């Protein structure tokens, strides 16, 4: 958008592109519109699989931008392009480019746009932190590249600079080399650049795919809100944003037959749960486990937010949680006195955390999940309002636990196993410790828009060690009373129809289920 608004090559298209929008009205346009020569670099395609290819791929991306500059403005000859391309360093390419322009007496102003400036360095940071430090910090060639940008900003050839990326890791590692940039990520004025508001989602549906009597817009938006909404990138903003990638992916599928797709979660997002692992891998196992268990069990975590990464210092809990935030895996609920309260932004990301936790759980405990059996269990719940097969699936997993695992086993661990089994389904929203007027429910399965069934499910869990068996009848009765109160409270909610169960496990292989 910046390229089309500011680029002189698009001046004759300004009215067509922007005329009907606020920024295109004569009283709102700036005097700088269509006054810049735009130079655009896109670093999203830089190869990181082999270290030796990174520098060559980076230079190739630079030349792609310079070649487009030549096509847009015809200010360079093919011979000059060849001379620029003959340089074997990024700084050499950029120096040569600006030198050729100066030799031609170029007096215009350049707007430098860099898209995904941190994509390749984030890849390196995850898989090869030592090489990351080598190319970005100290005297690294990426740092030198941005120092050249700074030089030509000082000379006035580059008048403006705008870069997009996920994290502040790359540029913040080069503070002294590129201290002319401001990080606007947390500023309230720019908050809504990062996603769609609900009003925008509704307008998108109504103005693109909507056909009268084909579907209910309110129903669709209500479902989308649960799956995709919740991101906040400024503690001062009250507006929560929808994830753009998730929204566009969903609407693309939904528009085909006006039916909810089999999967509400974009596979490109949910399959990327190892991104969590890549961020936490630099911490001790104790610190990593603490972060994951807090986020999963409480669905929130509090910490400082760092916007200045220094990789000469130890990587701590603060940096890890900050990177989870910058990568969209946590979002801001609020902040007070510099302490940020982070939460999981939406249900799709919640599923990603549980996929990661399931990966850890199966790896550490050597547990195998029978996914086919679990799917039949979910089908039974949906069609018959029964949880018999689900409990048998749970039992088969429990039997694989060692006696050592069972020493400190509790209701908390029961809930975790149930959650890891159920979180992958698209027909139920799975919630733990859901608050009601009567207390907190251990586990609820709430129907999604993809669920044709009639009932929601409430499960109150009890785990009894041998010493507790003498109080079995009392514990059972207490569980029945709790489940009954929770069910009655939840059924006051609009559209709710909860079936309640009390499940009592005695040990690894025995349980009793009571429908309330």
Strand proportion, as a percent range, falls in: 5-15%
* Main structural class: alpha/beta
Number of strands: 13
| Secondary structure tally, helices | 22
| Widest beta sheet: strand line-up | 9-10-11-12-13
* Main sheet specs: 5 strands, mixed
What does it look like?
With 516 residues, the protein is an alpha/beta fold. It has 4 domains: 36-183, no CATH class; 190-264, no CATH class; 270-347, no CATH class; 367-515, no CATH class. The protein has helices spanning 2-6, 14-18, 51-73, 78-85, 90-103, 119-127, 129-136, 141-155, 169-172, 198-208, 217-228, 244-257, 267-270, 274-280, 285-298, 317-326, 347-365, 371-384, 388-399, 403-406, 411-422, 472-490, and strands at residues 37-42, 110-115, 158-163, 229-231, 241-242, 300-303, 331-336, 339-343, 428-436, 439-447, 456-463, 498-505, 511-515. Strands 9-10-11-12-13 form a 5-stranded mixed β-sheet, with helices on both faces. Strand 12 (498-505) and strand 13 (511-515) form a beta hairpin. The model has no long low-confidence stretch (mean pLDDT 88).
Brief synopsis:
The protein has 516 residues and is of the alpha/beta class. Helices cover 47% and strands 15% of the residues.
